[in-house]
Design a protein that fits this description.
homodimer; alpha+beta; Glutathione S-transferase Yfyf (Class Pi), Chain A, domain 2; 4-stranded mixed beta sheet; 4 strands
Chain lengths: 206, 206
């Protein structure tokens, strides 16, 4: 089994790296250099027709892409500690939170990066006004998540650190890399971010 | 257990309705009228702070939102026929396909609806040029999915009809509602669409 990934700040490969560190899994990783466009090469497209990272290739050649799907598979091999829930209700709630983070937080961050960041301007046609409008969407989503954490917490899906935290943590850190900081007054969200950033897995980088 | 949903063309409530029809589950559904903004009412926000549909409320009051997460929970109660895979590899591959459909197809459809459709113009500030650019993104994503189905198929994740088909079917049908048709030359994708539309579950509407 080989993981094809990339170093930070690429947020999706980082999700798997944090997950693997939390589980204590020894997973060989091959770097695919995005700066050299290796992820768009025929070799990598044979693993993932979308030319995206990360991709996990099993010993029989089966390829699994999408960070969360890869972690879901690894959870079946290494159930402890559980990161996708201990029963059906927990699993559904964690899945809900993963999706909420993707759609409420990661979508505006991705759109800001895609349409307003100078580093992507050279590669792609941008709609800058639209791109800039995602600053407010991200801030609003952070405000919502802050209220949720103030009422619930200490982690995204409740009492336990789960895959939803990894998805949120990599999103918030990538947002900061693109220039989108957490709102000053989002105190519960900031406390959560300090909490997850203090875990050794936050430093995982291959 | 009560499902709070909405009628067609709302794509997310429809996903659960198709799933329930495929499984033969008898699930009471309460309609939350989006036209009357009932989904943004305090009553519904108490179930789902984002004011979105659908939400499943369990007998103990636990609320599960997000169409796919609701179906994942229902699968645990009604495992047959399996719609999220029969083993860990299938589950990961189906999860991957669900995410690919959400990000590659549903995102441009949602952005087109949000930023270029006259029905949302009255409610929201639109970036129309950006919105219109999603026509091409959707067409390109359909071309990619068409090639995948031509090589694989007959269903999205391979040989079996799964949750990935439901996510794709509701996306393609909602796209058509917004004015985004399947490309004429996407013959494998069109054949797949006829295949899933011929199933009795496609007509499920409460």
């Amino acid at each position: 089994m080989i993981l094809y990934g990339e170093r930070n700040p690429a947020p999706n490969p980082r999700r798997v790296r944090i997950f693997v560190a939390e589980k204590g899994i020894d997973l060989p990783e091959t770097r695919v250099k995005m700066r050299d466009r290796e992820h768009k090469s025929p070799e990598h497209r044979a693993r993932n027709s979308l030319g995206q990272l990360p991709t996990l290739v099993l010993d029989d050649g089966t390829a699994i892409s999408e960070s969360v799907s890869i972690c879901r598979y690894l959870e079946s091999l290494h159930p402890d500690p559980p990161m996708f829930g201990r029963n059906a209700v927990e699993a559904a709630r964690i899945d809900m939170w993963i999706r909420r983070i993707e759609f409420q937080l990661m979508t505006p961050v991705g759109m800001f990066w895609r349409h307003a960041h100078p580093l992507t301007a050279a590669l792609l046609t941008q709609f800058t006004d639209f791109g800039e409008s995602n600053r407010e969407l991200y801030a609003r989503a952070c405000g919502w998540l802050d209220r949720e954490l103030a009422e619930g917490g200490p982690f995204i899906a409740g009492g336990d650190y789960t895959m939803a935290d990894i998805v949120a943590q990599t999103t918030v850190d990538f947002a900061a890399f693109t220039g989108l900081a957490l709102p000053e007054d989002a105190t519960a969200l900031r406390a959560w971010h300090e909490r997850v950033s203090a875990r050794p897995s936050a430093e995982a980088n291959d």
